[in-house]
Write a structure and sequence with these properties.
By secondary structure, the chain is mostly helical. It has 2 helices and no strands. The radius of gyration is 22 Å and the shape is elongated. This is Antitoxin Phd.
Length: 78
Amino acid sequence: MPSLNVSFTDEELEGVRAAAAADGKSLKQYLHDLGVREMQRKQFVAGARGWAERLREEFDAAFPDEVPPSARRGGAAA
């Protein structure tokens, strides 16, 4: 597994160490978990966007007054 060097200012490192300690984790484990959580967050957001896009037409039909005028078929911004 490749090694990775990450630079922090003294103030940033102090904050990261405090956050790791608050979670009861080593600095190495905390930074690992932080990266994994960010990857999972991005996957969740992408899935939620896809889900919303699939339901957009159905929602727009059910709630026509909620569709912004610029996004309505044949509509224009006010």
